[in-house]
Amino acid sequence: MSTIAELFAARRAQAKKALIVYLTANYPDPQTCRQLVLELAEAGVDLFEIGLPFSDPMADGPVIQASSTAALAAGVTTDSVLELVSDLRRAVKQPLAVMTYYNPVLQAGLESFAERLAAAGGDALLVPDLPMEESYELDAICREKQLDLIRFLAPTTTPERMMNICDGATGFIYCVAHAGVTGSSQPVKNEGPMIVAAAQKITKTPLAIGFGISGPEAAAQAAAQADAVIVGSAVLEKLKCEGVAGTMRFVASIRQAMDKGVGA
Amino acid sequence: MKNRGRYGKFGGQYVPETVMPALAELTAAYEAALASESFQRELKEYLEEYAGRPTRLYEAKRLSAHYGRARIFLKREDLLHTGAHKINNAIGQALLALRMGKKRIVAETGAGQHGVACATVCALFGLECRVYMGEEDMARQALNVFRMRLLGAEVVGVTSGTKTLKDATNEALRYWVANIRDTHYIIGSAVGPHPYPAIVRDFQSVIGLETMEQAAEKIGRLDYLVACVGGGSNAIGLFHPFRNRPEVKKIGVEAAGLGVDTEQHAATLTKGRAGVLHGALSMLLQDKDGQVLPAHSISAGLDYPGVGPEHAHFRESGIVQYAAVTDAQALQALSLLSRTEGILPALESSHALAYLEELMPNTRPGEVVVVCLSGRGDKDVPSVIETMGGMN
User: Fold this and answer.
1) Domain boundaries, chain A
2) How close A131 gets to chain B, by Cα (Å)?
3) CATH number of this structure's domain A3-260
4) Of A14, A111, A131, A216, which is least surrounded by CB within 10 A?
């Protein structure tokens, strides 16, 4: 059983939902990023998505665009992100995933990237611009290295596509809560629960809702349906405006809302 | 259309899951349109009656005399309504959008010619129009910004990244993802995920098909085809119908900016490596980690670090040769055509014209060179003044 599968099994046994937090690697600086992960690991975050920034992040809204641009300008490279994963692996027990776009993986070499990520102690890889049809080669390589290549379901996904995407999915399935980019500024209709309801009928792979989870209320709502909730832009925005302390308060409020909403 | 639009190893569909069903819908609508007589008839009618096709294949006798070798003909896409070849694709895709029941168009634009073409067809067909344009390009192409607004389009300035075509494309894609159910994205060049490169190529192939017919009728021979390449839509439109005719040599001309040995150029095929940007695997200007590098060209329409996947394939398979000319060479060519023929070419097309300096000495009298004059240069006058200075 993979680390991620174990995590979800444990959470299910506790009747709790998993909280996944996305952070852009070494943003705003390596020390702060590392410190934040260590503190969040003690505050109920179950899995970390570490963003390897890309110059042209097609699926990301303004917050992650800005953190990506800042990280790249500060000299973050593929090597330094893999070093960060390796460093965090020694410091926290939670599963670690790398989220990036296809080109950085392609340029590193699919085989080489997967091997280095696995060697660094990474558990999963998320590539939002790699739809299932283009993913067979990387998927096979990831399986061989015991990495989960996370698949995506969107509000526009047709039932036939959903069958194919769920078939053989490992780790968790990322349910994109609204048609759009990450971190929407205005409230949008959360279509995540509908996707989860449909997908639950055909797969046992854990389902996570992400995109536009702006705070405790949205997180609790998503947690009521899904196995996990993914928060990214909202956390990075807090980090930028209120530093580590403000981010910790914010994530604690999300964790609390998820637990209360589900347990009570 | 099988294999998700591969040209050799290039092409593909590297987009978020949200977009995949829309690409499937577009592919189906496009295949149906290709087979539909009524669609083809309607397209032909708008191209002829509204846009002004067929365009002339004009013999540039004074320019030919300047070189004293082969005869030079200009494929006059600059004479089309809105002043560039972009209208061919905009009409075709707007008709597709109508068939799909979409009510809104989103587009990116570099020089503004594609934006103007989209704003124009949206006015014509009563569609909403939203155009993303880099702020740097808005400054150097102010005339086209006003034209789009006059035509009723909303022009949105893009401040991210290099503030040029690449970033405008990112924003247009993001808007499309968020409005995918009722919006059609009219991509302006032969780039993007499948089926876009094929759709744009097919709508622009009218350039090459007419050239083939006109050359056969009027001239009786054809030796060279020359076109500029940014994303490469006018070039693929000219070259594609001749892809199986190796006796007609085809040369795509990229923007070398300040020189291909500097970091300030847009010569993707000359200096790039295979990589994924904007939904397709093609050649790309990038660093060792796969981060996309900023391009540079005096021509906003060529200022793009990627290129259409079919061009990458044509280069690899030797079907087309690619060269690059600098900003300064393009400006000289613009000036030369203006003074010898009384035709002010767009800076983009001036790159194709500039290649004549290299090509013509190797041609023989009696041979025939066709240059695609993809657009007119009125829009470029402010940046030409800025670079060349005043009227001297």
Assistant:
1) 3-260
2) 6
3) 3.20.20.70
4) A14
